[in-house]
């Protein structure tokens, strides 16, 4: 099954490589508006008009490939279905949000926040119901300590999915950052899946990684396409559910440290701004924009997007290795 999972990754990679250029051509041919750029970050001016919603291609590729392989090789289990469901539904939520921003003549703001939240919560509830077909113990594993949350486990699942989906969404702010950061995070969970013999989970994990690697070819600086909410929301919800399926929820606090950093920076900025009536902690948030505008201190020469990418990828890789070391020694 290990070879089969890698083959699925290769097929997803090839499909995404074929699909993305055609998706870009479609955007240009229809003269559709791209993802809005940030006026505060002058170096982003050149990104105006860049096609978005590229996540649709790699997500659909991963969903199709993993489903076909799962059916052929007998891996269409409740665990697989749960991961597949979360990836598909969070992608749908993101797609509707992107679609309204790009195609709607009346609503360029996308889905209402309340509607988006309700859809995310509904996805979490259905995920819980599917999981109950596999394991009805409602146990949360924290560094080897098992805590029975009873029915509160559904609350945890909702919180986990919504929180991480929005955190990855915030991370998707510069060329190539989210695609490789998430690919590294998922690679760590692929190692855990192999160790547990969860080839059903590994199958969809590697399919997503294959799609992400292909997408990065077109998403690295200078990006020819952005993933949009259809990609970032799907990836965030997916990685959260993977950590639950592998009973390694705690590990995401290390593996997903960058997503936490991005989210916390926004929360700190907004809170401080309100408390001080206009003052700021960072030049701009999420924090990768702070580094863009003024380096680490915020007062020096800004970092290039490549430098931010490499630093964030390295941090994710190091902390992912640390999480794996802890996992295999507890």
UniProtKB/TrEMBL annotation:
<dbReference type="Pfam" id="PF10555">
    <property type="entry name" value="MraY_sig1"/>
</dbReference>
<feature type="transmembrane region" description="Helical">
    <location>
        <begin position="117"/>
        <end position="134"/>
    </location>
</feature>
<feature type="transmembrane region" description="Helical">
    <location>
        <begin position="6"/>
        <end position="27"/>
    </location>
</feature>
<comment type="pathway">
    <text>Cell wall biogenesis; peptidoglycan biosynthesis.</text>
</comment>
<feature type="transmembrane region" description="Helical">
    <location>
        <begin position="225"/>
        <end position="246"/>
    </location>
</feature>
<feature type="transmembrane region" description="Helical">
    <location>
        <begin position="79"/>
        <end position="96"/>
    </location>
</feature>
<feature type="transmembrane region" description="Helical">
    <location>
        <begin position="201"/>
        <end position="218"/>
    </location>
</feature>
<keyword id="KW-0133">Cell shape</keyword>
<keyword id="KW-0812">Transmembrane</keyword>
<feature type="transmembrane region" description="Helical">
    <location>
        <begin position="177"/>
        <end position="195"/>
    </location>
</feature>
<feature type="transmembrane region" description="Helical">
    <location>
        <begin position="149"/>
        <end position="170"/>
    </location>
</feature>
<keyword id="KW-1133">Transmembrane helix</keyword>
<keyword id="KW-0573">Peptidoglycan synthesis</keyword>
<comment type="similarity">
    <text>Belongs to the glycosyltransferase 4 family. MraY subfamily.</text>
</comment>
<keyword id="KW-0808">Transferase</keyword>
<dbReference type="GO" id="GO:0016740">
    <property type="term" value="F:transferase activity"/>
</dbReference>
<feature type="transmembrane region" description="Helical">
    <location>
        <begin position="48"/>
        <end position="73"/>
    </location>
</feature>
<feature type="transmembrane region" description="Helical">
    <location>
        <begin position="252"/>
        <end position="273"/>
    </location>
</feature>
<keyword id="KW-0472">Membrane</keyword>
<keyword id="KW-0460">Magnesium</keyword>
<keyword id="KW-0132">Cell division</keyword>
<keyword id="KW-0131">Cell cycle</keyword>
<comment type="function">
    <text>Catalyzes the initial step of the lipid cycle reactions in the biosynthesis of the cell wall peptidoglycan: transfers peptidoglycan precursor phospho-MurNAc-pentapeptide from UDP-MurNAc-pentapeptide onto the lipid carrier undecaprenyl phosphate, yielding undecaprenyl-pyrophosphoryl-MurNAc-pentapeptide, known as lipid I.</text>
</comment>
<keyword id="KW-0479">Metal-binding</keyword>
<dbReference type="InterPro" id="IPR003524">
    <property type="entry name" value="PNAcMuramoyl-5peptid_Trfase"/>
</dbReference>
<keyword id="KW-0961">Cell wall biogenesis/degradation</keyword>
<dbReference type="InterPro" id="IPR018480">
    <property type="entry name" value="PNAcMuramoyl-5peptid_Trfase_CS"/>
</dbReference>
<protein>
    <recommendedName>
        <fullName>Phospho-N-acetylmuramoyl-pentapeptide-transferase</fullName>
        <ecNumber>2.7.8.13</ecNumber>
    </recommendedName>
</protein>
<dbReference type="Pfam" id="PF00953">
    <property type="entry name" value="Glycos_transf_4"/>
</dbReference>
<feature type="transmembrane region" description="Helical">
    <location>
        <begin position="310"/>
        <end position="328"/>
    </location>
</feature>
<dbReference type="InterPro" id="IPR000715">
    <property type="entry name" value="Glycosyl_transferase_4"/>
</dbReference>
<keyword id="KW-1003">Cell membrane</keyword>
């Amino acid at each position: 099954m290990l070879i089969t999972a890698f083959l699925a990754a290769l097929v997803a990679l090839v499909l995404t490589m074929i699909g993305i250029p055609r998706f870009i051509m479609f955007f240009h041919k229809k003269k559709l508006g791209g993802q809005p750029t940030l006026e505060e970050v002058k170096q982003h001016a050149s990104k105006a008009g860049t096609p978005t919603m590229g996540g649709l291609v790699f997500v659909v590729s991963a969903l199709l490939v993993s489903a076909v392989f799962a059916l052929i090789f007998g891996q269409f289990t409740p665990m697989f279905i749960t991961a597949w469901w979360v990836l598909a539904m969070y992608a749908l939520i993101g797609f509707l949000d992107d679609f309204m921003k790009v195609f709607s003549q009346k609503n360029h703001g996308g889905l209402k926040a309340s509607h988006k939240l309700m859809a995310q919560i509904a996805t979490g509830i259905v995920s819980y119901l599917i999981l109950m077909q596999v394991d009805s113990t409602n146990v949360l594993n924290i560094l080897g300590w098992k805590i029975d949350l009873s029915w509160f486990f559904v609350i945890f699942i909702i919180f986990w999915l919504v929180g991480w989906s929005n955190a990855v969404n915030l991370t998707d702010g510069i060329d190539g950052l989210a695609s490789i950061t998430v690919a590294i995070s998922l690679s760590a969970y692929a190692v855990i899946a192999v160790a547990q013999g969860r080839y059903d989970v590994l199958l969809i994990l590697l399919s997503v990684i294959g799609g992400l690697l292909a997408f990065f070819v077109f998403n690295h600086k200078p990006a020819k396409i952005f993933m949009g909410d259809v990609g970032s929301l799907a990836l965030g919800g997916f990685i959260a559910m993977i950590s639950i399926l592998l009973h390694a929820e705690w590990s995401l606090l290390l593996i997903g440290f960058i997503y936490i950093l991005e989210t916390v920076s926004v929360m700190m900025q907004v809170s401080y701004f309100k408390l001080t009536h206009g003052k700021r902690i960072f030049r701009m948030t999420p924090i990768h924009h702070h580094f863009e505008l003024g380096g680490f201190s915020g007062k020096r020469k800004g970092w290039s997007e490549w430098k931010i990418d490499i630093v964030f990828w390295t941090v994710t890789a190091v902390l992912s290795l640390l999480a794996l070391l802890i996992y295999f020694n507890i």
